[in-house]
């Protein structure tokens, strides 16, 4: 039997038609299955979680058939309560499928602690930007008898002397005791 006779035979044509019909039925069943399993056209609206505690956020997401996934905590933001949501992805109002994970970033319990650098015998002009770059602010400035004029003699926090390596919360107000250029005990 030649190839041309085989390709034009009734048996071959029946097999081709059966294969095409089978493929169409398979695609139809696959598309119907996908519609059922993916809930095509059904969406949940993501609630606004910003400023809410973990418990409240989890409850709201559970009511909307969504899941909470905590990514990390961020830098402390005093505008939000401790351990509350400060960022979310996807954003509030977005349309998502049932069971979708909503990723949140939490506000930590306070500012992170920062180590105090060695600023003794540095000038005020050097100490001020160093402290501000670390997130501290300058409190009161007092002067004492010390030969180096405007040099840092002591760093104080809440009335106590702080030393290099001590840790304070970021945004703490540090008081500086500077030298006035007079020799100690020369009055």
Structure, described:
28% of the residues lie in helices and 28% in strands. It has helices at residues 3-7, 10-37, 54-63, 124-133; strands spanning 44-45, 67-73, 85-89, 95-96, 101-106, 113-115, 137-144, 152-157, 160-162, 167-169, 173-179. The protein has three domains: 1-36; 42-105, Trypsin Inhibitor V, Chain A; 111-177, 2-Layer Sandwich (Trypsin Inhibitor V, Chain A). A hairpin with a 2-residue loop joins strand 8 and strand 9. The chain has four helices and eleven strands; from the N terminus they run ααβαβββββαβββββ. The radius of gyration is 35 Å and the shape is elongated. The strands form four sheets. It has a four-stranded mixed β-sheet with strand order 7-11-8-9, covered by helices on one side. The chain has a three-stranded mixed β-sheet with strand order 2-5-3, with helices on one face. It has a two-stranded antiparallel ribbon with strand order 1-4. The termini are far apart. It is an alpha+beta fold. Residues 41-108, 110-180 form the PASTA domain. The chain crosses the membrane at residues 12-34. InterPro entries: PASTA_dom (IPR005543).
């Amino acid at each position: 039997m030649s190839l041309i006779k085989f390709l034009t035979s009734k048996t071959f044509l029946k097999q081709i038609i059966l294969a095409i019909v089978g493929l169409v039925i398979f695609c139809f069943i696959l598309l119907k299955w996908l519609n059922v399993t993916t809930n095509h056209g059904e969406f949940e609206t993501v609630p606004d979680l910003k400023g809410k505690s973990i418990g409240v956020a989890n409850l709201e997401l559970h009511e909307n058939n969504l899941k909470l996934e905590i990514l990390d905590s961020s830098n402390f933001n005093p505008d939000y309560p401790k351990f509350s949501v400060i960022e979310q992805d996807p954003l509030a109002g977005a349309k998502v499928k049932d069971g979708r994970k909503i990723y949140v970033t939490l506000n930590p319990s306070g500012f992170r602690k920062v180590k105090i650098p060695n600023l003794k015998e540095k000038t005020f002009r050097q100490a001020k930007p160093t402290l501000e770059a670390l997130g501290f602010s300058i409190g009161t400035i007092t002067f004492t008898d010390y030969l180096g004029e405007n040099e840092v003699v002591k760093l104080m926090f809440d009335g106590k002397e702080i030393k290099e390596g001590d840790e304070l919360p970021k945004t703490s107000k540090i008081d500086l005791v500077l030298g006035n250029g007079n020799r100690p005990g020369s009055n």
